[in-house]
Amino acid sequence: HALEADLRKAVEREEFELHYQPLYDLSQQRICGFEALVRWNHPTRGRVPPLEFIPLAEEVGLVVDIGRWVLRRACRDAVYWPEDIKVAVNVSAIQFTDSDLPGDVAAALEEAGLTAGRLEIEITESVLMENLDEALPILHVLKQRGIRIGMDDFGTGYSSLSYLRRFPFDKIKIDKSFVNGIVEDKEAFAIMRAIILLGDALGMRVTVEGVETAEQMALLRSEACDEIQGYHISPPRPAVEVPYLLSQLPEHE
Ligand code: G
Ligand code: G
Ligand code: NA
Ligand code: MN
Questions:
Q1: Radius of gyration, CA atoms only, the chain
Q2: How far apart are the CA of 184 and the centre of ligand 4, in A?
Q3: pTM reported for the whole predicted model
Q4: pLDDT digit string (tens) for 187-207?
Q5: Could you give the domains of the chain?
């Protein structure tokens, strides 16, 4: 596999880069954090999307090294941001089973000098599904140390609801597929509303992903939705643009 060989070199040569997408607080009307999204700038192929190389990296065991790099890079970037701005990092299931995730997280925070409370770990349901017995104690350790834990792509799996009882997530991120049609379609809106109320009733912060229009944002503002993410606020942007985004986006109404 040619891509696999290149991926190995990419780890050594640090061909990765993090882009950041704002998380926008609806009541404060300002950015409250950024999600780190990894990019691979291949020397000849150009940019390879994460949906292509993350699954491959998981298969061949490279996702642990890449994940460690992402954690370190994200903490080192975030330490230069204002103190009330959090950084969210995606973590793969394999990082729970094949590495010392709490150790890697602690090292990344310590090396950067970042407070644990500024870091949020995003996990998808498949992470939990694949190894619940191993993942749950690790999540508890991270949470005890003050790291926030969010359930990503909420609603896309068939067992999301049962996981809400098994672990006290700080946040759920409602998958972008649920935003489609909320403005035009009563049923779509009813489902969105019910999921938001569920998260809210369980004391979790609720984020809606994939918000692309002002109408969607206005509708969510009238609900118990805490924050939104999506192209309407901003697509993921390179780290150097974070200060610009922080200075521009309060006007984003
Ligand atoms: O940014 P983009 O929409 O292309 O991301 C596609 C997918 O890749 C998303 O589902 C996202 O969760 C995943 N992804 C992005 N960055 C990382 C990362 O650093 N680690 C892991 N495990 N997944 C990531
Ligand atoms: O799985 P995860 O939630 O981490 O995926 C994040 C991905 O969603 C990123 O690749 C990002 O590029 C993409 N994304 C972010 N905002 C929007 C949006 O408003 N619409 C769509 N269609 N995709 C988005
Ligand atoms: Na995510
Ligand atoms: Mn998501």
A1: 18
A2: 23
A3: 0.96
A4: 999 999 999 999 999 999 999
A5: 2-175+235-251 (3.20.20.450)
